[in-house]
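Why does residue order matter? Because the sequence determines the fold. Keep that principle in mind as you read this record.
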Amino acid sequence: MRDALGIAALLRNGRRIAFLAAGCLMVALGIIGAFLPIMPTTEFLIAAAWCFGKSSPRLEAWMLDHPTFGPVILQWREYGAVPRKAKVMAVCGMTLGYVMFWFHVKPRLLFACLVAVFMLASAIYVVSRPEPRFSGQAGTRENTKCS
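Structure:
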């Protein structure tokens, strides 16, 4: 019985550490994405906040209270909302990524079409998300609302 409890605690701690490491990796990728036009930022930061929610309430609160990214993460969590600027950046990044894929990889037609369908479906999903509507003081969890 004692061994089972020890194993359960070890697994719980291992899971927490894995989510913490994944959250840190997502933050690093989000920072890189802020400087590379073909790599997203917001998606990685949303994933980081989710990972921190599973591992570190302090880091999750830091992400949610961040003046720049906090409102975007909260709007996504609560309403599935994506700001128009993020939509435009995402679709432009996907388009640029596909063009680079086309010219550098020189794929066969079937593979190029499969990748195009995947990118198009992703773009449609992003564009179809509602846009956030902020009321009150942006950047605080209590006053972030979507109409």
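Residues 2-35 form the longest helix (34 residues).
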